[in-house]
Amino acid sequence: MSGIKVAATADIHSPKNLDLLKSSSQVLKEADLLILAGDIIYRGRVEGLNEVLGVIKEHYSGPIFACFGNEEFDEVKPKLMSLSGGLIKWLDDEATIVEIKGYKIGLIGTRGCLDQPTSWQLKNIPNIRAIYNERLSKIGRLIQGLKCDYTILFSHYALCKETLEGEDPKIWPQLGCSKMGELIKDSSVTVAVHGHVHKGRVLRVNIGSTLVLNVSLPAAKTIVTFTLPPQPLEVKGQLSLTTFF
């Protein structure tokens, strides 16, 4: 039985990076599963989702799973779910299992956490630190609760410090969560996917037995693809992505 082919991307910020999406959309023809790791639209402009779906539907008709990014504002979540018309399954600190080619694939989607909330978050969401602490705990519980052949965790915010290389170290705490990396290291997660790191240079690393991928479209310049089971890395932290199908 052939491997499961997964495509993933983030930070389309439609229509801002729509041309990058279009230029690499041919890889979707071979995909069994598509993951959108947040910031699909630009600053809450929900109409951008229609353009993204238009590109995807030209080449792909399989299952699509997505998490919300920081630019999918909380107040537009219901509208996005309505606009997607059932084509996208949104996972908001939630888990599900999908069966592909006889394998059970566990999927966990989350906006993610930050080591240091942004100044805007601190001003407008007074309990943001508590939200992040609870979210981290919940993701751990979701991972432990899944009974499946492979587990994919996808988050908008970065999942480890290793994939932050390329960004200004001063802002690393506001790009991702090092505690997520610690959680992943000791977990059963097969592949962990994130976006948000637009200037990332290290796009794939191993954390424990988990393959971690930065699939941010501005960083990767293409839709990222991988297989389940994932192929081992020849060079840990290599700076380029390999298309596996």
General description of the model:
The protein is an alpha/beta fold and 245 residues long. It has one domain (4-228): 4-Layer Sandwich (Purple Acid Phosphatase, chain A, domain 2), CATH 3.60.21. It has seven helices and eleven strands. The protein has helices spanning 18-24, 48-57, 77-83, 119-124, 128-145, 178-185, 217-220; strands at 4-9, 33-37, 64-67, 88-90, 94-100, 103-110, 150-155, 191-194, 204-207, 210-214, 224-228. The chain has a six-stranded mixed beta sheet with strand order 5-6-7-8-10-9. The chain has a five-stranded mixed beta sheet with strand order 4-3-2-1-11, with no helix packed on it. Strand 3 (64-67), helix 3 and strand 4 form a beta-alpha-beta unit. It is globular and about 40 Å long. Residues 235-245 have low confidence and may be disordered.
Could you give a short description of this structure?
By secondary structure, the chain is α/β, with parallel strands linked by helices.
SSE topology sketch:
Elements: E1 4-9, H1 18-24, E2 33-37, H2 48-57, E3 64-67, H3 77-83, E4 88-90, E5 94-100, E6 103-110, H4 119-124, H5 128-145, E7 150-155, H6 178-185, E8 191-194, E9 204-207, E10 210-214, H7 217-220, E11 224-228
Parallel strand pairs: 1-2, 2-3, 3-4, 6-7, 7-8, 8-10
Antiparallel strand pairs: 1-11, 5-6, 9-10
Q: How many strands?
A: 11
- Overall form: globular
Strand order of the largest sheet: 5-6-7-8-10-9
Provide the CATH topology: Purple Acid Phosphatase, chain A, domain 2
Tally of structural domains: 1
Structural class: alpha/beta
**Span between N and C termini?**
15 Å
